[in-house]
Amino acid sequence: MDERKPASDWTTDFDILDPDYNLDPGPVWREMRERCPIAHTERWGGAWVATSYDDVQALVRKTPELSNRQPTVFPMEDSKDILADHYADLFPPLTKDPPEHSPLRRLLLPFFSMKAVEAHRPFTEQLCHGLIDGFIDKGACDAAEDYARQISPRVIGHLLGVDLGRTDELVGWVRGLVELGAANFELRSESYRAIRGFLGEEIAKQRTDPGDNYISRLQASDIDGEPVSDIVILNMCMLLLVAGVDTTWSSIGSSLLHFATHPDDRRRLVAEPELLSSAVEEMLRLHAPASAGRVAMADVEHDGFTFKRGERMILSFPAANRDPAVFECPDEADIGRQKNRHVAFGVGIHRCAGSNLARLEMEVALAAWFARIPEFELSDPDAVTWSAGQVRGARTVPVRF
Ligand code: HEM
Known about the structure:
This protein is α+β, with helices and mostly antiparallel strands. The protein has helices at 19-23, 26-35, 53-60, 101-108, 114-118, 121-135, 143-160, 167-180, 185-208, 214-219, 230-261, 263-271, 276-286, 317-320, 355-372, and strands spanning 38-41, 47-50, 66-67, 140-142, 222-223, 226-227, 292-296, 300-302, 305-307, 312-315, 377-378, 385-386, 394-396, 398-400.
């Protein structure tokens, strides 16, 4: 199949990398939900695609038959056996199915309780104000590149306890792994090896010189009396980078794009700062960045469909968040929306473990921005770009103020 050809029919030929879809996915999701809520595509290795809220909710619960060992929306490696056991070790606990999933999830949850993430607020506030100091006098910046992109890797680096001087390199590798390498196995493997090399060095350093951080505390913990090995710690650090960096940066960038292009919402948030938290939830709903993949380990029945062993599934949390059966006026933002049970953080046993941290980063980033730059607009609407694939978010947002 020529992957560059525009999709002929969204219900039979869905292309998650199609540039037009990516610019404005709402109409495509609407069409798919109305005509064929569980669609199938041959693109990118072939997959079923679930777009309705109820289907997504039901399918995440079909675990371990619909397995998370390949949670990516593209197959992880060309020509390898898609069901191979080693995939489950890659990003624990995300890639683990029950019963291995829970003990690993329990290990990381304490780092992301409301109380634990509050400890990162002062660092995040200082970081955001420092970034704004760097461009405020110019009266213009790229809100995605100069601001959103700079926040989450530094917050996660701070949490892990790694060398923050190498954040730019780290961001480049994470981008190569989860975004630019989506359809480029060579770049993806190169980026994967580079991150592992970096984390391996940091983990070895902390064995001899421990600190009060994620890596050192995992090194001091155990699962059922067994110490956690450095390789499991390395894989758990990898997960925070692939799960927490471009998701959060996408959400901050997409939110700033929204406020740059919706003056009524912008002014409302300035006038009613108490809406910050519901505004963050609405941005998460409307511009949910992450879709998830699953692979059928056995034939799985659902609503008259049979997903055959070895077939892949894309769970579109972003499409589910626009389902009119659940959300009024789903394609429009209401920053004061009260009933907002969105699934931007997924649902079920793999629901985002870092959601408290993600929310804190979004709130701090928007509060700092609005305190210093309450009036802003796009300086070049044609220059706006979005990332495509597993994580969709605004990547170029040129603004003036
Ligand atoms: C706006 C930002 C974020 C969004 C939209 C998001 C979204 C998601 C989604 C949809 C899942 C479920 C994937 C699946 O079902 O296969 C997930 C899982 C996960 N996320 Fe996030 N995430 C965000 C930020 C973060 C951050 C900041 C961290 C930590 C630093 C993080 C850590 C994790 C972890 C550890 C899992 C796996 C949980 C498990 O398997 O038990 N995420 N995230």
